[in-house]
Amino acid sequence: MWRHYTRQNKLRLILTAALIIGSVIFFISSTPSSSQDNSNITPTLFVHGFKGGPGSFNTMLDRFEDKQLGQKEMVIYVSTEGKLSIRGNFSGSRYPFIQVIFEKNRATLHQQTLWLQELMRKLQTDYGIQQINMVGHSMGGLASANFLVQDDGTYPTVEKLVVMGSPFLGIDKQEYFEMNTGEALADLRIDAKALTALIGSKKSFPDHIEVLAIAGRIDGKYTNENTDKVVKQKGYDGGDGLVSVSSALGIKQMVSKNNYHQEVIQDASATHSGLHEHSDVDQSIAEFLW
């Protein structure tokens, strides 16, 4: 009977079979193991920014794997409606990586925070995760911090947070808002109510969390030593081409002095979208987390 099938019918049959097998493998690999104890592992959650996606952290995670710092073991897709689709499972390794992908990658800060709450709840209830680290690029850092100030103690305990190029004091580039669209833009302006509320939530920010803020500086005036002095100079605040140094380090206003750390990455490749591709950023994150 097979020889009477047309080439098109054969191809359709093969693709259908492959789809069924792939779906079964996906379901099996995404089903939590009830017998596995994950209470002692500390995953790191990677959250992309405005308009981001898989490419935001794929290559960084590949580099971390090459250096044997950990393994990407789970990807959590969040649909526009907030439905979670989870691929992968935990192997028991000490420091697994979890990559978060928002289908609606221009959603408001409030909406992204709700999604983070839901996936954190699922990691705890379905996978037994008790503690976790977070790494956020750009708006992903804002959403991570906003999640923390609204943490009611029912989620895994966040031990360390890394924010890179995250505009805690907003973006002061009018042309950026003219050339982009999306609900999130209202939360990224320097006078945004969401950012004002976030920065003003110092009392709600958990006092045990260690924070590393990373800023890019593509000109020659900043160093880690003179940052505070330079940003006070009226009319000047360099940055990564989009987010100023002072804005990227703005989380400093929310974190206790003893728990706050910062790095200003200074060279021409430390652009906003280049931060997650920069070897110095890799090193800073690796040393801080692991």
TrEMBL record:
Signal sequence extent: none
Transmembrane segments: none
Keywords attached to this entry: Hydrolase
Keyword Hydrolase: yes
SUPFAM superfamilies: alpha/beta-Hydrolases (SSF53474)
UniProt-recorded Gene Ontology molecular function terms: hydrolase activity
Protein name, UniProt field: Uncharacterized protein with an alpha/beta hydrolase fold
Taxonomic classification: Bacteria, Bacillati, Bacillota, Bacilli, Bacillales
